[in-house]
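[step 3/7] fold_predict: job queued, chain A
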Amino acid sequence: DREHDAILALMAWVEKDVAPEHIIPTKWKNDTDPSQGVLRQRPICKFPAEAMYVGHGNVNASSSWKCVAQA
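[step 4/7] structure written:
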């Protein structure tokens, strides 16, 4: 999906004029063997927003982060 795949996000932006609000990259436990599972995921936010920890939950899960525009 385009939330986790930069190429799909870029295709949606170019072909459908749908710019991503954020992309969620994945760091694998073993980069050469993704079957070992995910180590962490965090959003990369659209400038000028920044990823901020929501204060609870697993710090390695993307659901524990949100994009916040700094004042």
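[step 5/7] annotate
The mean pLDDT is 96.
The beta strands are 22-23, 26-28, 38-41, 44-45, 49-53, 65-69.
exit 0
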